[in-house]
Amino acid sequence: MKKLVVNSFFAVVLGLLFSLAPLAVNAQCTMCKTQVESSRTEKDGYDFSGLNKGILYMAAIPYLLMGAVGYFWYRNTHPRNKAMSK
């Protein structure tokens, strides 16, 4: 019962954190944004259209790796029910 209460509390806190997150986010850091803005004003011919996607790609990789580690950790620490597999 105590584990159910802890899991429910965690789910509520996680839900509140996600609900407070902004819907639209610029993925550019301040330095990248200023570099792009200065290059656009100079009109030196560089194409920075993929910069935002590149930053999102670099940010997603650590989350995917940690998710995979968590999945395999959970899978290996919780024993499987042998009666259900027969």
Automatic annotation (TrEMBL):
Top-level taxonomy: Bacteria, Pseudomonadati, Bacteroidota, Cytophagia, Cytophagales
Protein name, per record: Uncharacterized protein
Alphabetical keyword list: Membrane, Signal, Transmembrane, Transmembrane helix
Transmembrane segments: 55-74
Top-rank taxon, per record: Bacteria
Secretion signal, residue range per the UniProt entry: 1-27
